[in-house]
Structure formats: structure tokens, C-alpha cells
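**Archive record**
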Amino acid sequence: MGTIAVRNVDEGLYRRVKALASLRGRTVGEELNDALATWLTQRTRVELLDRWDAPEKQAVANNRAFEKMRSDLLASHPGEYAVFASRKLVGVFRRKEQAYRAVSGLKGAQAIVANLKASEPHALEIGASLLQEVIG
């Protein structure tokens, strides 16, 4: 390992780390490497959880947008398929395959396709991996 200079380190924190490292029979570098490794591990977990949580939040937002427009869409496009992504109506399509293709062109990770039947419409949430299987 090489030597690196780090600017803007709080001197009080550095003195405390140096003292604790000395008491443990370790170098400041060893303590900092452990601290950085721990920080990265925790940060990575948080980022992964955020990434996993994002599609769920998108799904909730897309479903809310659909619910706001539901009655108008049912009246004007019965039997068709509405696509919602990024909290907006992307389009309405006569065939579900057209709706799925529209979703495949979106850059977002999550979208919904709502079947606008005269009875209760059914919304299908589509993530990127599921879409690959559907479009094939």
C-alpha cells in the first residue's frame, strides 16, 4: 500500500483515532482502512435498499396517476390498455402487445399497463426483467 495525503481531516478526530489506534497496537492507516471498509459496506447496503425500494415507490405513484384518470379512461377507451410511467399516462393502446412494446421503450424501471375493461380494470405492474420475458 502506498502513502496518501488526505486534506481537510478534522484534527480532533485524527488525534482521537491516533490515540485509539495506539492503545490497540495498530496504525492509523489500519484503523482508517477498517473504518472505510465498514462505511462502504453500510453505504452499499443503503444504496441497494434504495434501489430496491425505488420500483415500489414508482408503482405506487403510477397507480395513483391511473386512479385519478380511471373513470375518464374507462369512458373514452373501453377494452383498451393504458400505460403509465413516471406518474404520467404514456398512451392508450388497442392491443396489450402494443402497450408492452411501449413500456419496453421507456427508460424507467417500472410501469403499469391497465386493462380498461368495462368491469373492474386490472393493472399489471411491469419491471424490466418481467418485460424481457413478455417481449422476448
Remarks:
- Helices lie at 11-23, 28-76, 96-104, 128-135.
- The chain has two domains: 11-46, 54-135.
